[in-house]
């Protein structure tokens, strides 16, 4: 169930897309229009079809892609490629909350192991923070992971969960981008990486850095 459906049924007070934070999460936004996935479609769809592909409503979009090759000439079975891509995008979208919760759990576990007594934990997902803090979420599929995080929070330390916009923590954003160049697994920095120094200054001043700076 997408967030705007949950909103109508009273399961959440937030219908904003959890991945981009920019738009209501309708079905067409989740699968096609979200900036997180639209680049993938642009790499698959032939540029001559961009207009019809990115402007049609959900029903027309599906019918059109099942009846016409919107890809390049070599895409002999476009309908299959389209269907598989939709499925992968949807799977990735559902994986997002799972990954976010795991990163919070792992971050708390690491901070605990290191002996920290005061921790500020920021997430750009108000939905994930609410999942952790709102004890009325008792039937969520990720209940065991959520309970493990809550048990961490009850321990003898001070942990503050804070919601921030992606633009409110450029250090985290630059670390996430940098992580693509690191080996898989936990990478621990004992000192501030040089690329974070200027970014931290922007964060502390509440200034948005120029793209590419
Ligand atoms: Zn989005």
Q: Output the radius of gyration.
A: 20 Å
Strand order of the largest sheet: 1-2
Low-confidence stretches: 7-13
Tally of helical segments: 10
Q: Specify the helix fraction band.
A: 40-55%
Number of domains: 2
Distance between the termini: 39 Å
CATH fold-level assignment of the largest domain: Nucleotidyltransferase, domain 5
- Quaternary state of this entry equals single chain
- List all distinct small molecules, including ions and cofactors, that are bound in this structure: zinc ion
- Let me know the largest β-sheet: 2 strands, parallel
CATH class wording of the largest domain: Alpha Beta
Proportion of β residues?
A: 5-15%
Overall form: globular
**Count of distinct strands:** 2
Structural class: mainly alpha
Mean pLDDT: 84
Order of helices and strands: HHHHHHEHHEHH
Assign the CATH architecture of the largest domain.
2-Layer Sandwich
Organism: Senna tora
Protein name: Ribonuclease H-like protein
Pfam family, one: RVT_3
InterPro entries: RNase_H-like (IPR053151), RNase_H-like_dom_plant (IPR044730), RNaseH-like_sf (IPR012337), RNaseH_domain (IPR002156), RNaseH_sf (IPR036397)
């Amino acid at each position: 169930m997408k967030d705007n459906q949950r909103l109508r049924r009273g399961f959440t007070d937030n219908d904003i897309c959890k991945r981009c934070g920019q738009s209501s999460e309708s079905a067409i936004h989740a699968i096609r229009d979200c900036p997180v996935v639209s680049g993938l479609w642009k790499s698959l769809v032939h540029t001559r079809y961009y207009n019809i592909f990115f402007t049609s409503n959900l029903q027309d979009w599906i019918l059109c892609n099942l009846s016409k090759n919107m890809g390049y000439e070599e895409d002999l079975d476009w309908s299959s490629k389209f269907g598989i891509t939709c499925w992968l995008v949807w799977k990735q979208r559902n994986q997002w909350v799972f990954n976010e919760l795991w990163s919070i759990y792992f971050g708390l576990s690491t901070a605990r192991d290191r002996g920290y007594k005061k921790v500020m934990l920021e997430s750009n997902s108000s939905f994930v923070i609410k999942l952790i803090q709102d004890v009325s979420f008792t039937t969520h599929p990720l209940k065991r992971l959520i309970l493990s995080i809550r048990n961490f929070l009850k321990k003898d330390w001070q942990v503050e969960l804070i919601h921030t916009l992606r633009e409110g923590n450029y250090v985290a954003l630059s670390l996430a981008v940098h992580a693509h160049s690191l080996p898989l697994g936990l990478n621990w920095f004992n000192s501030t990486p040089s690329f974070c120094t200027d970014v931290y200054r922007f964060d502390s001043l509440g200034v948005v850095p120029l793209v590419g700076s």
